Amino acid sequence: MAALVGGYSRPLALGTGRGIVFLAILLGIGDLSRDPARVLALMAAGALWTACLALAFGSLFRALAGRPAAATPATPTASALQKFRRWRRMLRQPEGWQYTLRLTGCLAVAALLRTTWPDHHFGWIAVTVAILCQRQPEALPLRVTQRAVGAALGVGLAGLVALPTLPGWLPAGLIALLGGLGPWLRGRNYLAYTASMTPLIILLFSGGRPAGTGPLVDRLLATAIGAALVVGANALLLRAAPVPPPNNLASRRQG
């Protein structure tokens, strides 16, 4: 539903894209908790706390620098009715459904594998699919390859920092460091960005506890499976019906 509704506008595509990723992460964390509702409440409180801190520090830095908030340039935007009509026209064409079908198909296979082998940590397949699957299929899976390699490197890094012999404060400090590096790395080196975000997610999954060799191997295998699912779905779609370049903001990459 989120993938389908996201085609309404670019802001909604960005928001729903992030929502899909966070939902996959939340489901994985919920499996490790005896009280999923409490986990959801804590994540909502964390999101609200982060937003409040961002507003507070932004205001503080602008005050110290002596400059007002940057004005957003006025750009012509379509009305809500125009966006709805454009979205409705898009849904009457196969191109309007291709992202939803690819994502749903890959997640269905991920759920099947997770159900078939419940003793393995194959919930990571869904997280990998949610991260790698983009609104526009990539004929040359360079970005998918970068994300997959970065995720694999991140799994290895998480294995090094989650050793039981390391002090307990290290995971908390590493979470803070990786969380701060993420926005800076994203626009400079996508491979490094993905490699840094993967151990961050794994540390959040494990609650800072040592993950052990078995779960890390499972997640490394799940990363490869998730990447293969996305690349395969893109290849099948492009072979069956090549998708034309996007002609509106809503159909661009979700980021």
UniProtKB/TrEMBL annotation:
GO cellular component: membrane
Domain Integral membrane bound transporter, residue spans: 110-231
UniProt entry keywords in alphabetical sequence: Membrane, Transmembrane, Transmembrane helix
Main subcellular location of this protein, as a coarse class: membrane
Top-level division of the source organism's lineage: Bacteria
Protein biosynthesis among keywords: no
This protein's name: FUSC family protein
Protein localization: Membrane
Transmembrane segments: 12-33, 39-61, 149-170, 190-208, 220-241
Membrane topology: Multi-pass membrane protein
Signal peptide residues on this chain, from the entry's feature table: none
UniProt KW Transmembrane keyword: yes
Record-linked InterPro entries: Memb_transporter_dom (IPR049453)
Pfam families for the chain: FUSC_2
